[in-house]
């Protein structure tokens, strides 16, 4: 079967984070917190998890004086997510027939 | 593992919510159309009233008084429309418990207002050069381009609204005697039509 079920995206928060980073060049910590409606600690641990898998990278900048932490999907991350998507699609098609 | 259909729906919804400003209020579109239509009516009355010929009075705009009055009228209509859109969209985002200021809403506003701001400045240049007959088409064209540009970051209907404004603007540029009529159709009637469509589809 084509595609690959990726354990990194088994958790729904991580799946959502990666979905967002597929269509946004960069996304910041606070915006993640608002759209996902999760706590700081929970979000940070999921982000770290994806970072450890080398699926996302962190970019620390300043907006005025406030520190701003942006996240970007890496090439490997995008590829892994695409494979995960392919797997899900093939699974649906396989179940149909 | 969750169902794959559910999983894909989750992915799609997150992609949409993080890139598109979905709190745009249909009701605000309807009201903006009504303000614009009323404004166009007043302008028509001032410019053309005794004559019913559409374009026969266009030299009259050189009167400084009328020029100031029209400018003030235009600014009032614009501020009312923007104010209404802001308040009602904010209300809608509160109702859906979405944040109003998100990366998506900022991108939407930037995409819309770069062409619109350029159009506004261009219109001042037209006043400066006394090319009054091109002001109505120019505002329609720039607004249309702004909407098409911004449609990537909000509800899809906005794209067709933009194309409509663009066509009316180009028509008005070739037939300046119908400039004000095109303006009333674009900013007035099209806003009401698309506003009601969006209201019925998303807001109820």
TrEMBL record, chain A:
Query: What SUPFAM superfamilies would the database entry show?
Result: Winged helix' DNA-binding domain
Which GO annotations describe the biological process of this protein? regulation of DNA-templated transcription
InterPro entries per UniProt: ArsR-like_HTH, WH-like_DNA-bd_sf, WH_DNA-bd_dom, WH_DNA-bd_sf
All copies of the Winged helix DNA-binding domain together span 13-92
Entry's transmembrane regions: none
The protein's matches in CDD domains, at most eight in alphabetical order, are given as: HTH_ARSR (cd00090)
Q: Which Pfam families match?
A: HTH_34
Q: Which domain of life is it from?
A: Bacteria
Q: What is this protein called?
A: Transcriptional regulator
TrEMBL record, chain B:
The reply on keyword Transmembrane helix is: yes
Q: Does the keyword Transmembrane helix apply?
A: yes
* Highest taxon of source: Bacteria
Could you list the residue ranges that cross the membrane? 21-49, 69-88, 108-128, 134-155, 167-194
Keywords (alphabetical) are: Membrane, Transmembrane, Transmembrane helix
Name used for this protein in its record: Uncharacterized protein
UniProt lineage: Bacteria, Pseudomonadati, Bacteroidota, Cytophagia, Cytophagales
